[in-house]
Design brief:
single chain; about 160 residues; alpha+beta; 2 domains; 5-stranded antiparallel β-sheet; 4-stranded mixed β-sheet; about 15% helix; globular
Length: about 160
């Protein structure tokens, strides 16, 4: 039979361990930071394609990301909903903001073209996105991707 003193010490030790892990986990977590590079309004002005840098600290490289948002809406601190890429250990050239160069252009009010370097390491290429534009409304945007090393015209 276990005495009550040992049981209390064991419970206290478990609580201290859980609290320590929780504090260390919070102290060591680095929030990601987004920095908008530019935005391009859709032809009808209702949406915007936003190209931004995403930085999650010293253990990861800068990434270039693209999101489509309602016009005037801030990018916040969310990852891109259209495109995410990095330079793949310097295989792709870096843009002025540190990630790989990516540009965007609209092909009509609901079609977007994303142009990027072929050596970029891509982790997201969404073929379409739905963007909420009101309480009960959303717009569907078709996405086209073009790889271009800058040597010739892009699609």
């Amino acid at each position: 039979m276990m005495n009550q003193g040992n049981s209390r010490r064991r419970s206290s030790g478990v609580l201290v361990a859980i609290a320590t892990i929780s504090v260390l986990g919070t102290a060591c977590s680095v929030p990601c930071v987004t920095e908008e590079q530019f935005r391009v309004a859709s032809p009808d002005g209702k949406l915007a394609a936003v190209v931004f840098r995403h930085d999650c600290g010293a253990t990861t490289d800068f990434s270039t990301q693209v999101s489509v948002l309602p016009a005037g809406v801030s990018i916040g601190n969310q990852p891109g909903n259209v495109f995410i890429a990095d330079v793949d250990h310097n295989q792709a050239p870096r843009a002025s903001w540190g990630g790989p160069l990516a540009t965007v252009r609209w092909r009509g009010p609901r079609g977007l073209v994303v142009i990027y370097h072929p050596l970029s390491r891509v982790s997201l290429e969404a073929q379409s996105v739905r963007v909420r534009t009101g309480w009960f409304r959303s717009e569907s945007i078709a996405i086209e991707f073009v790889r271009n090393d800058g040597a010739g015209p892009a699609g």
